[in-house]
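A reminder from the course coordinator: this example appears on the midterm review sheet, so study it carefully.

Given structure:
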């Protein structure tokens, strides 16, 4: 339920609307020009693909609908229809954004709703992945020209195996995922095209891909080593390790940004160090291409809460997206330096609200750290995107200078647990 004071502020700007049962509130494909706060009644959200209707969710009293199209700026990816008589408040995009900027409590209410939707989505995805993983593991021993062997792990929406090409014998990491619906096929093809465009020493390389009997596969270079998430289980990084992990990552992300590709899920699990000391950025599975084809669904929220930039929570997520990747990398760097994220909680809504409203504690409160390095980190974590670095190349340059200035000082021991 929304706080009474915030509801009064919302009512002062909003218009009252009502809908009879069966009446369409907004349609798939329309521009996201307004949001709705449901005061009474029940609304169904559904999408249509090739004439087939699929229910996505139901929304009731006290919930906001339409905000994802407004915040993403991509237009309606679903239709909303009144299942019962509905009364609602509605605001145009400009009024909604203005209200959010002036009323933090409204943002907190919205983030609670978004976080609950995220938890519901993650629960459903986990169950779906468990089913798909069991099916893939039990039914698929090969796919396309590849023989599947050792299971290496599970990524965003797929299972990754070690395998080899039946004809050449070349070993590869092969990501296998269920691709049945048109949306899944389109997202898979976008991911393949995105990955194929990137040829960089610090980005995992894709060799081939295909669709076979309801499954998609991508064959990538087979990496042996560990992720930063695995490394941090052993303790914080020292200065040399910070340079080894983060400078190449910044260079890789700058390269992707110059191609118009935003990662959108930078976190320790997606930074990988090979056994011979080469950093690779992994998993562009939810990456977005500027001016490229997009796939999204109403109510779906992508990214990892602890590493999510503020502007991707409470504002149009496509503004300054290069800086959004900077923020996520900044959270990752903070964790590598201090041993914990700047904002941690079992409640996703609290984490999202903290990204929006709370300044992180200075890392020097937890570990000895040179002022120059701390300044670089806190600039990456600036709430306002334009206060971060102009691009990742500049961020890398500043980080190198800060690390050089820190070498040999008392901070050289800060990596000890």
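Designed residues:
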């Amino acid at each position: 339920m929304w706080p009474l004071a915030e509801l009064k502020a919302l009512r002062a700007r909003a218009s009252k609307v009502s809908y009879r049962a069966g009446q369409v509130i907004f349609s798939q494909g329309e521009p996201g020009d307004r949001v709705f706060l449901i005061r009474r009644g029940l609304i169904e959200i559904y999408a249509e693909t090739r004439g087939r209707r699929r229910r996505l969710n139901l929304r009731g009293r006290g919930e906001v609908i339409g905000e994802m199209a407004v915040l993403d700026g991509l237009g309606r990816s679903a239709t909303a229809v009144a299942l019962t008589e509905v009364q609602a408040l509605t605001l145009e995009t400009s009024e909604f954004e203005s209200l959010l900027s002036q009323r933090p409590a409204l943002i907190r209410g919205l983030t609670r709703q978004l976080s609950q939707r995220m938890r519901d989505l993650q629960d459903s995805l986990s169950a779906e992945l468990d089913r798909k993983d069991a099916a893939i593991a039990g039914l698929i021993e090969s796919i396309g020209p590849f023989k599947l062997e050792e299971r290496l792990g599970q990524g965003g929406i797929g299972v990754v195996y070690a395998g080899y090409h039946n004809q050449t014998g070349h070993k590869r990491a092969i990501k296998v995922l269920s691709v049945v619906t048109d949306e899944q096929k389109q997202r898979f093809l976008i991911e393949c095209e995105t990955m194929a465009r990137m040829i960089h020493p610090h980005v995992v390389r894709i060799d081939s891909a295909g669709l076979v009997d309801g499954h998609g596969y991508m064959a990538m270079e087979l990496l042996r080593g560990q992720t930063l998430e695995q490394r941090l289980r052993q303790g914080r990084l020292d200065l040399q390790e910070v340079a080894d992990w983060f400078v190449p990552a910044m260079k890789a992300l700058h390269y992707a940004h110059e191609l118009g590709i935003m990662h959108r899920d930078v976190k320790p699990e997606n930074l990988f160090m090979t056994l011979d000391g080469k950093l690779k950025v992994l998993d562009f599975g939810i990456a977005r291409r500027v001016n490229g084809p997009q796939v999204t669904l109403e109510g779906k929220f992508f990214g990892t809460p602890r590493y999510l930039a503020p502007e991707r929570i409470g504002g149009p997520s496509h503004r300054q997206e290069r800086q959004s990747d900077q923020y996520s990398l900044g959270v990752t760097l903070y964790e590598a330096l201090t041993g914990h994220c700047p904002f941690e909680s079992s409640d996703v809504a609290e984490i999202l609200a903290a990204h929006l409203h709370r300044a992180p504690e200075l890392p020097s409160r937890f570990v000895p750290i040179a002022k120059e390095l701390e300044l670089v980190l806190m600039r990456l974590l600036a709430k306002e995107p334009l206060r971060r670095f102009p691009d990742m190349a500049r961020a890398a340059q500043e980080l190198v200078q800060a690390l050089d200035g820190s070498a040999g000082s008392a901070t050289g021991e800060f990596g000890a647990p």
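Residues 4-102 form a domain with the Jelly Rolls fold (CATH 2.60.120.10). Residues 121-131, 289-301, 314-318, 410-417 have pLDDT under 50 and may be disordered.
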